[in-house]
TrEMBL record:
Name by which UniProt lists this protein: ABC-type polar-amino-acid transporter
UniProt key word Hydrolase: yes
Protein EC: 7.4.2.1
Reactions it catalyzes: a polar amino acid(out) + ATP + H2O = a polar amino acid(in) + ADP + phosphate + H(+)
Length: 251
């Protein structure tokens, strides 16, 4: 498989359409994300943010259009899809850790099964990742023994263990108690600062202002605004975005 050229975008979606029955959830989406860019996706409930994330790694099949990761088109299915999907890490609202495996085992699994690392190497890498997200001392515990914030950091470590080129986050802090939100956002901001290409669906406006290079605002399956954080928050152009911001910023 040929790698992308240095100039190729990390994510490229062209004319992507997706329906759920008669509902047109992604409408002619064109999106190009260069390497190292941190994109925050905002928008009202049901606007298609999760579907956009899921379309990027083909968790959700699309009706038409193309999705490329690092210059390579995403195959529709099969082994090639599994390989390319490893390039795209995803972290969800619900942490989706394996309940009957320790935190270390959760992080080890993908590298051993998919990247075919030997156990010693995988353990070394996994331990370093758990240190990086600040939970090395939790390695031998089971997910239920951890706080929500620690579990979500374990989920981030597990995704990073696959050495992804792109990280997708779909409301990673929405299920957390407020006092645990920042420990997860700090890990994400660290990743952003290290140059990871990231697409983040979040309601955390502080994170959007602090860590994002770009804000996408979605409504009704379309990208309605494509802006910088300062431009978006200070002077949103569309009535939809103005309405959205007036609702969230007054709470
Ligand atoms: N599997 C599915 N089958 C049918 N409709 C779906 C399915 N998944 C999502 N939808 C619908 O598609 C639309 C977009 O959903 P999506 O989850 O992408 O929105 P969202 O912007 O992530 O919303 P939220 O902020 O509530 O998470 C919604 O109207 C939703 O009800
Ligand atoms: Mg969603």
């Amino acid at each position: 498989m040929t790698a992308g050229t240095p100039d190729s975008p990390m994510i490229r979606m062209s004319s992507v359409d997706k329906h759920f029955g008669s509902l047109h959830v992604l409408q002619d989406i064109d999106l190009t994300v260069p390497p190292g860019q941190v994109v925050v996706v905002l928008g009202p409930s049901g606007s298609g943010k999760s579907t956009l994330c899921r379309a990027i790694n083909r968790l959700e099949p699309i009706d038409s259009g193309t999705v490329e990761i690092d210059g390579k088109p995403l195959p529709a299915e099969g082994r090639a899809l599994a390989e390319l999907r490893a390039d795209v890490g995803m972290v969800f609202q619900q942490f989706n850790l394996f309940a009957h495996k320790t935190i270390l085992e959760n992080v080890l699994l993908g590298p051993i099964k998919v990247r075919k690392l030997d156990k010693a190497t995988a353990e070394r890498e996994a331990t370093a990742l758990l240190e990086r997200v600040g939970i090395a001392d939790q390695a031998q515990k089971y997910p239920a023994q951890l706080s929500g914030g620690q579990q979500q950091r374990a989920a981030i470590a597990r995704a990073l263990a696959m050495k992804p080129k792109v990280m997708l986050f779909d409301e990673p802090t929405s299920a957390l108690d407020p006092e645990m939100v920042n420990e997860v956002l700090d890990v994400m901001a660290g990743l952003a600062a290290e140059g990871m290409t990231m697409l983040v669906v979040t309601h955390e406006m502080g994170f959007a202002r602090r860590a994002a290079h770009r804000v996408l605002f979605m409504a009704d399956g379309r990208i309605v605004e494509d802006s910088t954080p300062s431009r978006f928050f200070e002077a949103p152009e569309s009535a939809r975005a103005q309405d959205f911001l007036s609702k969230i910023l007054t709470h």
